[in-house]
Write a structure and sequence with these properties.
single chain, alpha/beta, Nucleotidyltransferase, domain 5, 2 domains, five-stranded mixed sheet, 32% helix, T6A_TsaB, transferase, Gcp-like_dom, tRNA (Adenosine(37)-N6)-threonylcarbamoyltransferase complex dimerization subunit type 1 TsaB, transferase activity
Length: 243
């Protein structure tokens, strides 16, 4: 089973192809070009490296978020269009699940953190159950100061949120805060593909048209629109006293 994995949840784009549980090719790009400019060429590079065409694919797995609003939209739109055009099944995979899956055999509590801006991170808590990494909490956008309130034991942080918030997490948790090496700071498309394959084998596929990114919170554009169109409270008329 050949599965194409796509991750555009961060500034770094990652594309991979797996065959069952074997990685055939993986390609990551972290340049000033946008996902819109490099995603299709990157897919072509990976397929050529694996000596495959899109018609050889048995399914497509795409990171569904949370993460970069623009990146997720581009990745999701591309995956939906490609899957529909070749009539192959499509599945969405959480970017946080894909991050945590890098530490399948870790005995520590695992906490992926993606930079959500606005002094928050996208995060969830995970633990190794022996055969898979189990999510223990919901996906959320949360300030580091609130995140650590749920942590009472040594924890391994990974993800690009470690760069801006690592020092803060260290100061809040002290020796309980451990950090993954730089090679594991970003989601990998190969793990998006691997987690997607599990869903495909189980027959748990998504609809081409209803699959949408998991944003967790509203974008700035949505917030501005809501503020502009929300009913304004009318000032109360001044009460008059009878003479």
């Amino acid at each position: 089973m050949h599965i194409l994995g796509i991750d555009t949840s961060t500034m770094t784009g990652s594309i991979a192809v797996i065959s069952n549980d074997r990685l055939l090719a993986e390609y990551s790009v972290n340049t000033k070009t946008t996902h819109a400019e490099r995603l299709i060429p990157s897919i072509d590079v990976v397929l050529r490296a694996a000596s495959l065409t899109v018609w050889d694919l048995d399914g497509i797995a795409v990171s569904s978020g949370p993460g970069s609003f623009t990146g997720l939209r581009i990745g999701m739109t591309t995956a939906r269009s490609l899957a529909y055009s070749i009539q192959k099944p499509l599945v969405g995979v959480s970017s946080l699940d894909a991050l945590a899956a890098q530490y399948l055999y870790c005995s520590l509590l695992v906490c992926p953190v993606l930079d959500a801006r606005k002094k928050e991170v996208y995060s969830a808590l995970y633990r190794n159950t022996g055969s898979r990494v189990q999510r223990l909490s919901g996906y959320r956008a949360i300030a580091p100061e609130l995140l650590v309130k749920d942590i009472q034991e040594p924890v391994l942080f990974l993800g690009d949120g470690v760069v801006p918030y690592g020092d803060r997490l260290q100061s809040l948790l002290g020796e309980m805060a451990l950090f993954a090496d730089p090679a594991h700071l970003l989601p990998r498309a190969s793990l998006v593909a691997a987690l997607g394959r599990e869903r495909l084998v189980a027959g748990d596929i998504d609809d081409y048209f209803s699959l949408t990114p998991t944003y967790i919170r509203k974008s700035d554009a949505e917030i501005h629109w809501d503020n502009a169109h929300s009913p304004r409270k009318q000032p109360r008329p001044a009460s008059s006293s009878m003479e």
